[in-house]
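Sample A.
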Amino acid sequence: MATSSQTPQAFTSVRPNVMEVEYGAFRGYVDVIDHARQIPMCKTHFCGTVWPSRDMAEHQAMELARSLRAAAGASRAMLLTASLSDAAAGRKPLEFVPVSLVKQQPTVPVVKRHLRLVA
């Protein structure tokens, strides 16, 4: 049993996401999960506008998540953006891909010799 001095620091997770409400209509929402108690509590905040593109809904959900994070206190609120696209989350497209898997463009053109010239 942990004493009151050993209790972990309470924090809040802010997770933006997008759902498709109709065919071609997207709405952003943000899950705010409070980990202050033994049983985490989740509250969902929906964006006010339904968008015809997923990108716009992701952008609006990210803005709502940033404002909710600031309201909860930025030092104890974590922004989790794994469910959003790279552009909406502010990641570079190949940020998490190892360099060995990315095909690099050659800096010097490769000259292919014909077999008769080599022999």
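Sample B, a different protein:
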Amino acid sequence: MSCVAAVMAVVLAVLQITGGQLRRSQNEDPLQRHGDVQGQMDGEWKCPEVRNVSCACDLPHTLRCTGGKSTFETVARALRHLSGTSSISLLDCTVQNVGSLPARMLDGVSLHGLVVSSGEIKSVSDAAFDGLGSPLQALGLPNNQLERVPSSALAMLSGLERLDLSHNRLHTIHNNSFKGSPNLTFLDLSNNSIHFISPDAFVNLPFLKVLRLQNNLLTSASTSHLQGLRSLVDLDLSSNLLAGQLGPSTLPRLPNLQVISLAHNQLNSVRRGSFAGLEGIVSLTLNHNQIDVLEDHGFRAVPTLSHLDLANNRIVAVSSASLAHLTKLKTLDLSHNFLRSLTSDLIVPLKSIQVIKLDDNDISIVAEGALNTGNHITSISLSDNPLNCDCSLLYFAGWLSNHSATHAAGDTAVCATPPSLENGLLQDLPVSKLTCGGEDSVPPPEGPLASMQPYTGTKISLRSYQFDGSRISLGWTVVAPVISYYCNALVIYEDVGNHEVLLDSKPVRCNSSQLPDAKSLTLSLSANELQPTHSYRSVL
């Protein structure tokens, strides 16, 4: 968040806290509102005059000043005896060449909100906020160089409800960091260097509802210390160092939490029991991680979830049990993954789903009946997927035709193959074009795709493996007396530490009806990313 954005956040907070001199309805014209504000400034409220310091009032009861070391003394002198017609609710000071906030810096001044930034402030006097003429309710010290929470100074502000310490150099949150601030409802610690949180750091904040911790250096060991926040509703842990499995011990029990972001971390899987004690979550953001495994019933504990963002991960497939229990989910984002097909396994559990984002996957097939239970779907986006527009997409083409009045996938479902239909919109193609068995088409086996069963374990096994540094050759044996199959992807995992990481997902095409021996399958393809001494697992 920029300095201006941080200041505006505090401005809005102060206006909200103080009953709001600035109120705006959804249908109000912004230009009309500007006239109303100007009228208030000219008729009901007058911007105070501050000599020798550059100050301006762009909102009623809000004063912004820019200056140097003498700014606080000069501003305090000007504001100390203001009457109600020119009183200030929020003071925003940007000062230069100031490394410390002095004692009694605004002695006798009545404020509801204060924002101070310089880019240089490293310390705050224990008595910095002594002598204020009224209890301060919102304080912002963003964009400075604070290395520790100014606990003693904050202890003088027992009525403080909102605190912004973002964009500083904080590295540790101690047990007593907020001991004197029991009434906080909003706390922004984002964009610091926090790597350790003491086990009882937040137990003295019984009313805290919003906690911003994004862009720090937190690991799972520290996030488990976010205990005691019984009132917390919104938690942002994005862009930290959370790695490995998202499991039962990753997060503490936060019974009132509704919104949580774990985006831009290094999580690789969602395990069963991951959200135990978080039963009230309605929005979960997990984009930009390394997730390739969604364990069956991994979301059992959060049946209230309505928004789930899993974009920019490494997900190859989603089983019907992976998203089981999410009957209230309305929005699902799986864009920028490695999904190969859209099947009923994904849609069936989602009884209330309305929006599905599947852009930039490897989807070539939409299975028969995949969307039959999606009665509430208003939008599916499928841009940048290699759709194979043959007879296997007849069902999907029909579904698009029947849902043309909604914001369905019509303008994003673009054919990649066969070459004769490349870049064509599926919804614009006549049914006669969706055929199998042509020269540039690889036909699927007979019968609906949805009825096919995958063959794994003893039914299909790797017979031979060769790697010459640039290409791999894999020989598979299909051990089944009678079998008809085709394949479309080879997924390669690399063993890293004690878990597997998705390395690549390569498109392949095979059809048992076109092989001399359906029980023997050989694939050869480029693999420059493989290393001779590393361990890999190949999944066909």
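Observation for Sample B: The first helix runs from residue 3 to 17.
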